[in-house]
Amino acid sequence: AHQWQGIIREYGDLLPEHLRTHVVTLGEGGTPLVPAPALSRRTGAQVFVKVEGMNPTGSFKDRGMTTAISAAAARGAKAVVCASTGNTSASAAAYATAAGMTCAVLVPDGKIAMGKLSQAIAHGARLLQVDGNFDDCLDIARKLAEVYPVELVNSVNPDRIEGQKTASFEIVDVLGDAPDIHCLPVGNAGNITAYWKGFREYAEAGVASRTPQMWGFQAEGASPLVKGYPVDEPETIATAIRIGKPASWDQAIEARDTSGGVIEAVTDEQILAAHRILSAEVGVFVEPASAAGVAGLLMRAERGLVPAGARVTITVTGHGLKDPQWALRTLDGADVEPQKVQVDVMSVADALGLV
Ligand code: F0G
């Protein structure tokens, strides 16, 4: 029977040679592109969500980590390092383990979701909580990799971008052409850079007839690309994108401008409302940051900026189980308590309103 072989083997001829000589894979990619009628209805567009939480460690980072770790392994690297808001560290730890390497991760103290922390530790990473934010962690990781024998596997590593661009290939392969608009959350801006590269390459190769507009969305309290200057103390409940100084700043602006797209901010309330719609109306459970693309599309639809019938794809970047607490709170902040019942059929039937 056929099994998906991971993005390097599936898309090898579209990736640089040096990524293919020593493949380290956990079977990443091949994620579902799910039609979202609830979002189509609300926007008048034809909306699909690319469910990246279905990757082996539960986020899109695995696409870039198979390539970054494979390249590092081919060079004989023994150790890797990354800064992370959580998902990169979970992914780096898993792929480093698969490659027999050691992995060090720097995370902002107290600001990463429990599921992600738990993954990095489970996979045996040396996890250090830095008394600072993600941007501080990345500064340190970059300097460490310059001076010591450890390879940096953040998205400033071009091998990461090569892997992550395959998500665009998959979207075009499934739809038969590029969408009109592609929406996604933006934090450190590696992913918008990668998607734009993928869409452009498929258009240049003639696989797609065009490229989509790239619509990127940042959390309002962490929206340097929207403001036009770095944010010293980024704040948002969407901890994955709590970033004030995106490393791929110029590439994100380039993707926005050459695609005719936008980068805008959504509030934490809009993110949580979109999170709720995804889980309760579409059937896809994501972590808060992952709902930013949906929040942005809904915001622009309300302003009349989504063309009727447009084909829209949205990357939902990470799994809801990474950071599950948000489902257990109402939008106005009250705790959701599961109802308790007696051990008998009548009380259950009664509680369910069946009698
Ligand atoms: N969504 C999720 C769930 C993420 O974890 C990230 C980034 C993004 C969106 C934004 O992607 O940085 O390429 O613009 N997480 C990084 C990390 C920073 O360390 O896991 P980006």
Automatic annotation (TrEMBL):
The keyword Amino-acid biosynthesis applies. CDD domains: Thr-synth_1. Transmembrane segments: none annotated. Its EC number is 4.2.3.1. Pathway: Amino-acid biosynthesis; L-threonine biosynthesis; L-threonine from L-aspartate: step 5/5. Residues 24-318 form the Tryptophan synthase beta chain-like PALP domain. It catalyses: O-phospho-L-homoserine + H2O = L-threonine + phosphate. Coiled coil: none annotated. SUPFAM superfamilies: Tryptophan synthase beta subunit-like PLP-dependent enzymes. Keywords: Amino-acid biosynthesis, Lyase, Pyridoxal phosphate, Threonine biosynthesis. The keyword Transmembrane does not apply. GO terms for molecular function: threonine synthase activity. Its cofactor is pyridoxal 5'-phosphate. NCBIfam families: thrC. Belongs to the threonine synthase family. Catalyzes the gamma-elimination of phosphate from L-phosphohomoserine and the beta-addition of water to produce L-threonine. This is Threonine synthase.
